[in-house]
Write a structure and sequence with these properties.
3 helices, alpha+beta, five-stranded antiparallel β-sheet, HIT family, subunit A
């Protein structure tokens, strides 16, 4: 797919349409948050707007307020759910930055003193671990 062209067949679009399963922790009319299947740390969660855009460079600015409100809500919940020392928030734009899925998304990763992030190795986490972590985050969100 050419740079700058949104591909409705990307994996996150398929997750949003329910074609691929996910461990969701939050959903409203505009935003979905679910577990990253290749986490760089315990509780690594993705916050994804339902509106199609490749990344922040072509997104409708109207999505930023609801997106980042939920990023904050999820960040507070993952910090609480995993008793984390901090939270890393990351968002990539285009291949040179490290973006590999071309649907706007924000990574929310609980962080622990002295524990480095795992490399993005392509190694998938066990579904039962993702389900357990999703349950912890949903509990922290109060849902």
């Amino acid at each position: 797919m050419a740079e700058g062209v949104y591909d409705p067949g990307n994996i996150f679009a398929k997750i949003l349409r329910g074609e691929i399963p996910s461990h969701r922790v939050y959903e409203d009319d505009a935003i979905v948050a679910f577990m990253d299947v290749m986490p760089q740390g315990t509780g690594h969660t993705l916050v994804v707007p339902k509106a199609p855009s490749r990344n922040i460079l072509d997104a409708d600015p109207a999505i930023f307020k609801p997106l980042f409100a939920i990023v904050q809500k999820v960040a507070v919940a993952v910090k609480k759910a995993f008793d984390a020392d901090g939270v890393t928030i990351v968002q990539f734009n285009e291949p040179a930055s490290g973006q590999t899925v071309f649907h706007l998304h924000v990574h929310v990763i609980p962080r622990f003193d002295g524990v480095p992030l795992k490399p993005h190795s392509g190694q998938m986490e066990k579904p039962e671990v993702l389900a357990e972590n999703a349950g912890k985050i949903r509990a922290a969100l109060g849902s």
